[in-house]
Each structure stands twice: as structure tokens, then as C-alpha cells.
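Example record

One chain of 236 residues, shown exactly as stored in the release files.
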Amino acid sequence: MATTALRTVHAKVIFKGPAIQVNGLEAVAEGLWVSDQQNDQTYLIDYSGKILTSFHSPARNASGTSFGSGSVWVASNVKPSMVFRHNPYTGQCLAAIHLPNPEKGGVHGIQWRPFELGVKPHPAPEPEPQIFPTAHGGALNAGPGVSGTLWVTRPGTNVIDHIDAETAEVLGQIPFPVSRSHGLYWENDTLVVVETNHNHVYRLDPANGNVLDEWQITGVPEAHAMSRSADGRVWI
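Predicted C-alpha cells for this chain:
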């Protein structure tokens, strides 16, 4: 039976990254948010590569970056796996969440999305009395649904987690067909994810993980971070 050759797309260098080993990437109107896993610095660069701003993150081995709900989100690919939320203007760390099963699976890529496609936040928990009513410690978080969602690639477990960005509660999970999933972006209500071993890119149904399309990136030894800008260009 005849087989169809895998479609390939060749990458070309536009500019060098702002640091040693960029491993997180998110395209926005102003340019690209990028995080470096060697110095744990996050940068906003324009589409010519000029640095517009930067800040240091508590994330270690920073391996995923996204923008949404007015914040920059940076993933930490060490145990325990975490995501840190930052003010994009000052770099101040606003919050930190532990991922599901934080001691295994790792985290390579994250993508912020609003609640959509029928996905709803979990109900808010019943309020509990303060242990020390006269010295309020503050709530753990602002409650389910207020900060959108995060899709998180978990290469060590061959799954992609969908979590509430405020509470880290699991909203869903889909399988990934191979190991070492990494960067991801959305296209027409489908999730596009790259794997690093062979630079294959999979377009997935976010409801069940079914593979809708597959292609391969050539011209780079390993594709790690990945994002798509509004003009249709895919950045790696």
C-alpha cells in the first residue's frame, strides 16, 4: 500500500536569541516573549531581535513561556514542576502554582487560553473560617476561573495537562503520541505541539488528543520552544 510522505517545512534563521539557550517562546503584538533556561531570564524582544525589556524569574531551567490574563507565565522544569506568574512591566512575581504530579513529568511548554470550547471552571470551594480571625493570612488564590487556563506539555508522562491558571486544578488531560513534547500554539481551535527528538509537529484535537495533522521541521537540530505570530509565521 502506498504511503504519503511526511510534509516538511524548512526553518531559517531570522536573528540570534537574546541569551545562551532560549527555551520558552510566545508571540504577541509587540514581539516575542522568550525565556532562557541557562540564566532564567525572560525577555520581550521585537521582531528584529531587539530587547525591549527583561526580568529574572524564580523559575529554574525555564522551559515554557506564555502571555495571558495580563501576565507573563514562565514554567520551571525542575522538581517540583511549577509555573510562575509575572507582571509584564515590572517582572514582579505575582503567583506560583504547582502542576499536577509535580515530582514527575516535567514541563516543557505552556500556552495560556481563556475558558472556551465548553470547558468550565470547577465550583468555588465553601469558605472556611480563619484559624486566627484577627490576623488574616489572605486567601490561597482568587478562586476558580478568574485567570483563564494553561495547557502544559508534560514530556515525562506523554500527556498534555489542561489546568486552571489560578488554582492549578486539572480541567482535562489528553495523550501525546510520542515522548519529549515541547512548544505549542493554537490554530483554529486545535492545539499544535512540537516534539524535540525528531522535530515532528502534531495538530491535535484538544478534546481527546486525536492527531489531525503531522509535519516536520527541518533546518534546526532540535525544535524546543514554538509559537505562531498573528501574521502566520511559526517561531522556534
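Notes: Residues 189 and 206 are 8 Å apart (CA to CA).
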